[in-house]
Specification:
Helices cover about 40% and strands about 15% of the residues. The strands form three sheets. It has an eight-stranded mixed beta sheet with strand order 3-2-1-4-7-8-9-10, with helices on both faces. The chain is an alpha/beta fold and about 425 residues long. The chain is built from 14 helices and 16 strands. The longest helix is centred in the middle third of the chain and has 32 residues. The chain is globular, with a radius of gyration of 23 Å. Helix 14 links the parallel strand 14 and strand 15.
Length: about 425
């Protein structure tokens, strides 16, 4: 038998890791508390865009993959990677899933085994929160008895160019021996491993990456609001600025931010700074305020656009294109499109939504999930592009729709208004 790997959490981060590890020769147990997920995985039915059904089937045929809700199946592991969610609860980091995973894995921990946390969190979590759980539950100590590390996930669902194997992996350990073990493990999974000096540096690295994106998206979102009021095409200005080969990175406006990272991760950093240093992280707080209000801005712009056509929003038929938080993925967590949909329903619009990547049960109450057919497009008073999936036929959208409010700039034409 090969080395046994346990991946706790079989979502957008854990499942691709589990599949790649099978290819690398590990015997993999994917533990998830969601019975619906486990049932689908063991039937070789994937719910993650980056993992095909055939990939799951091949993993099962190899005899080296099992999905389970029972931590007993994790017994005897050599490496355990924890990839569970870290949400916010009323603005405060909720480490409950990490605590549950750590507490469940601890009794199974053996001398010489390695535990790695991948969940995004504030600096200090691995050493100050996870380490005591593992030591108390196992009776072992790190670094003397087992290895402990942190490696931030860099999964970008739906990205056709960058995936787990070819994205450099930042790794860390509680000491040099742990760092070597963690680097050795990921060296079998990915092409490039980037070692850093401490757990805290690796934890901060992830928050820096996402905070960087968050504040720059907020910048262009606020700029788009003011540019529209000034009568300037912000998209043309962004295109022009993007021709500069140095000192500029392209970010574009949208209806807000979503997913498991941007609406949450910067707030973990802000919370840590406030708690440890007593200071407000003003950039993060300002970015949160701007991005959180973008769904309201989209609704306001749509109301104004319909008013110019002599139509009230109430009882108007509105077709939303996209409910996921990003293109070519089905993840609706914290999606600004969902917030737009809920607001429109509350204001009395007849709202329908089309999203080829999203399961029907994820649609908000009061919203019918439909296909973006020519009839649906032509019968809508307004079509709102919220998520720019490549599977939408944008030429057809702009050709047959009476009016299009496009927050992603995928359509052109006299009947199209951009964010």
């Amino acid at each position: 038998m090969g080395e046994k790997l346990v991946v706790v959490g079989q979502g957008y981060v854990g499942l691709p890791l589990a599949m790649r590890a099978v290819d690398a020769g590990f015997d993999v147990v994917g533990v998830d508390v969601d019975e619906w997920r486990v049932k689908r995985l063991n039937a070789a039915e994937s719910y993650v865009e980056d993992v095909a059904d055939e990939t799951l089937s091949a993993a099962h045929r190899s005899g080296r993959y099992l999905a389970s809700t029972d931590y007993a199946d994790a017994e005897g592991f050599d490496v355990c990677v924890i990839t569970v969610p870290t949400p916010l609860r009323e603005g405060v980091p909720d480490l409950g899933h990490i605590g549950s995973a750590g507490g469940s894995i601890a009794p199974l921990l053996r001398p010489g085994a390695t535990v790695i946390l991948e969940s995004t969190t504030y600096p200090g979590t691995t050493e100050e929160y996870l380490r005591p759980l593992l030591e108390e539950g196992s009776g072992l100590c790190t670094p003397e008895d087992f290895f402990l590390g942190y490696s931030p996930e860099r999964i970008d669902p739906g990205n056709p160019h960058w995936h787990l194997e070819n994205t450099p992996k930042v790794v860390s350990g509680i000491d040099q021996a742990s760092l070597r073990k963690v680097a050795e493990f990921y060296g079998r999974i990915v092409r490039d491993v980037v070692c850093v000096s401490s757990l805290q540096v690796a934890e901060l690295c992830k928050l820096l990456e996402n905070t960087f994106r968050h504040v720059n998206i907020a910048l262009v979102n606020e700029l788009s609001i003011f540019a529209q009021q000034l009568g300037i095409d912000v998209w043309e200005a962004i295109d022009a600025a993007s021709t500069k080969p140095f000192g500029y990175l392209r970010f574009t406006p949208g209806p807000g931010v979503g997913g498991h990272c941007l609406p949450i991760d910067p707030s973990y950093l802000s919370w840590k700074v406030k708690r440890a240093l007593g200071h407000n992280f003003r950039f993060v707080e300002l970015a949160n305020d701007i991005n959180d209000h973008m769904p309201d801005h989209v609704v306001h712009r749509l109301i104004l656009a319909l008013n110019r056509q002599g139509r009230p929003l109430r009882d108007s038929r509105v077709l939303l294109l996209g409910l996921a938080y990003k293109a070519n993925a089905g993840d609706c967590r914290e999606s600004p499109a969902i917030e737009v949909a809920r607001s429109l329903v509350k204001l009395g619009a007849d709202v329908r939504a089309a999203d080829p990547h999203v399961d029907a049960h994820l649609a908000p109450p009061g919203i019918e999930l439909v296909e973006a057919t020519e009839r649906e497009l032509s019968e809508a008073d307004a079509v709102v592009v919220l998520t720019d999936h490549d599977r939408f036929d944008y030429e057809q959208v702009q050709r047959v729709s009476p009016f299009v409010f496009d927050t992603r700039r995928r359509c052109r034409g006299p009947n199209v208004e951009h964010l």
